[in-house]
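I wish you would study the pair of lines that follows with an eye to the fold:

===
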Amino acid sequence: MGKIVARILVVIFVLIALFVTVNLLAYNDYEVAEFGNTSLVIVDDHLKEYGYNNGDLLIVSRSNNDKIIVGDKIIYYVGESVNSSTAINVGAVSEISDDGSQFFILKDDKNTLGDSVNKDRVLGSTDSTKVCPTLGGVLGVLESRAGYLLIILLPTVVIFAYLIRKVVVELKEDEKKN
């Protein structure tokens, strides 16, 4: 029974380690993991003002970007990279350019225009966004340098060393039998 539980735990650990590694490899310039039309955004203090909680994980889909209309709230990239002061923002679409390639965002409740956003910088509509409470915080810890080192890499090395030791012991036992 103990071996079955241990194997299940190892399989779960390996799946989590693979997911975190693939997620880190899928980062773009804004440190957002992109998988095709889906982006994984970890909510920080800046996005709290839009009704999200610190540590939430937003699963944002671009699949409905062609259906965005005036009045929709969208999540979009601001600046050139994560080094800018605000990498991701949320805003209501107040106007769409004639060719549909650009959105104009309301800056505040006074109907003043704020950002002008190209369509390719839009992550998606808030309506099509799924919110996973606290998963962003967990993922953020796993993706941090210290978290990845201590929670992913170190146990992987220990498991690998254990398996090598087990193989060496079995080889020595086979030599003794022969």
Summary: The chain has a mean pLDDT of 86. The two ends are 32 Å apart (CA to CA). Helices lie at 2-25, 135-143, 145-177.
